[in-house]
Amino acid sequence: DIQMTQSPSPLSASLGDRVIITCRASQSIANHLNWYQKKPGKAPNLLIYAASNLQSGVPSRFSGSGSGTDFTLTITSLQPEDFATYYCQQTYITPQTFGQGTKVEV
Amino acid sequence: QVQLVESGGGVVQPGRSLRLSCAASGFIFSSYTIHWVRQAPGKGLEWVALIWYDGSHRFYTDSVKGRFTISRDDSESTVYLQMNSLRDGDTALYYCARDSNSGFYALDIWGQGTMVTVSS
Description:
The complex is a heterodimer of chains A (106) and B (120).
Chain A lengths: L3 E4 L3 E2 L6 E7 L7 E6 L6 E5 L3 E2 L7 E6 L2 E6 L9 E6 L6 E2 L3 E4 L1
Parallel strand pairs in A: 2-11
Antiparallel strand pairs in A: 1-3, 3-8, 4-5, 4-9, 5-6, 7-8, 9-10, 9-11
Chain B lengths: L2 E5 L2 E3 L5 E8 L8 E6 L5 E7 L6 E3 L7 E6 L4 E6 L8 E8 L7 E4 L3 E5 L2
Parallel strand pairs in B: 2-11
Antiparallel strand pairs in B: 1-3, 3-8, 4-5, 4-9, 5-6, 7-8, 9-10, 9-11
């Protein structure tokens, strides 16, 4: 199985900060990488698909980049509603696998 | 509106079975691949299984192969997850999710989840 490793975990940040979360795959996955936001008691929310495509309805302060094995999720100017746990997911090979999650906290 | 609603969770003894349901509404169900994803208490997300829009392909994570079966009934707009030989490690909140048809298995619509607790 492909292992997905996120860093840092957790991530301490303040309102207005630029936040960067990294995700590394144990082998190349091209651009088959999605990002989700997860809040307690809520279902995950798709932010980015295919490494860099912003899902409809997601604020433009979220962006993704990368290909191969190294990927990043960037949040420019962190807002109060952005404090959550973020997961990357590779869908290049079954079984699809998620990273362990990065909790963005104060 | 577009939504998925899971049901069928509960408390079950190890070795027993349970069937989860995922009822869809608000979209053309037969055009979409559906996934199950779970989250054990205090843990991260784990992909479990998927069934293609036409039912032609089904895939599972290794830990549930041979024990879980995913199926769909397009006439009922429902996907099922039959879970047999349940283990303690299957305890989790189970979500069903719709594939966005982006070609990247991105999950754009999720249900609220149904809790499965395996305990003696």
